[in-house]
Amino acid sequence: MLKSNYQLSVSDHNHYHPMSESHIIGNQRVWLITGGSSGFSLEVTKVVLKKGDIAVTTYRPPNIPESLAMVQASLLSSQSSNLLLLPLDLASSSPSDSQVSDVFSKAITHFGRIDVVFNNVGFTTLGEIEGIPEENARRMFDINFWGMARVSREAVKVFRDVNPEMGGGRIGGRLLNVSSRAGVVPNAGLGYYSASKQALEGFTEALVMEVDPAWNIKITILEPSAFRTHAVNSSLITFPQHPAYTSNPSLPSHFIRKWFANHNDITGDPMFAAEQIYKFSSWDEQEGEVPLRLQLGDDSWTGIRDRLKSMLKEQERVEGWSKGLVPLGKGFEF
């Protein structure tokens, strides 16, 4: 029995046909995908539908973007019920938990459960930390961190309290939080963006520790490298170079600006990443526990590996400075 706060009537939207009952067939999974108008989320929506699963994909209101309208128009009549498009504005000036819960409610009303949440929303700013107004940096955290956190909390609640039982326990669900290579390897010129992704990684890792294994909720942080998405073009906000950094062309922020200026050379295709994400979502636990992190792209895997090696080397170099300050057994060891 679904909990009463999810027994909501679906308002009349012209972009889908309300269903009176679940239309899940066989092993179909129900995906809730945020930020679906472009990039990874759009490609994941396409792959999910191609594989025969159900996609509940959100877009920023007021209008359905052309990219999603084309996906909807391409579906055969027999597939039309597999795509539900819902508005969700995590970039509004005052987003709320109720906006997020309303989307989950409508997905539950239509399909009875949610199996996978692909949590992906945000934007990028390019500029030195001194050159980006605090108002913009705070807005980035509101979306890149708090927007993702709201969706994560609601996903856990639905997986635990709303999804049906099977075999004596909840079916649980999969939460895929999209971070970035920058979530582990910060970049000059992307300081606030890197910080927002590192905040998301810390939040997600703590969430994994908190959830009860009996709830059968599996959570993974996705760490993509450079792909041809809106993060490197239309969703990129570039600020003028801070005057203090203009005189030395060897500073790293100069190189990152040149890199973004040549973003047409980026070869990473988000379609291939979406295929890998879909495959990963069905991870067979006979291979071991579901990984906490998944890098997407050779340079992400290599860059994060090298970063971890560098951190370990530095930690070993300063080990003596910590000795005896807080003895083992008397501090944070759980």
UniProtKB/TrEMBL annotation:
Keywords: Oxidoreductase
GO molecular function: oxidoreductase activity
Keyword Oxidoreductase found: yes
Domain of life of the native organism: Eukaryota
Record-stated family: Belongs to the short-chain dehydrogenases/reductases (SDR) family.
Name of this protein: NAD(P)-binding protein
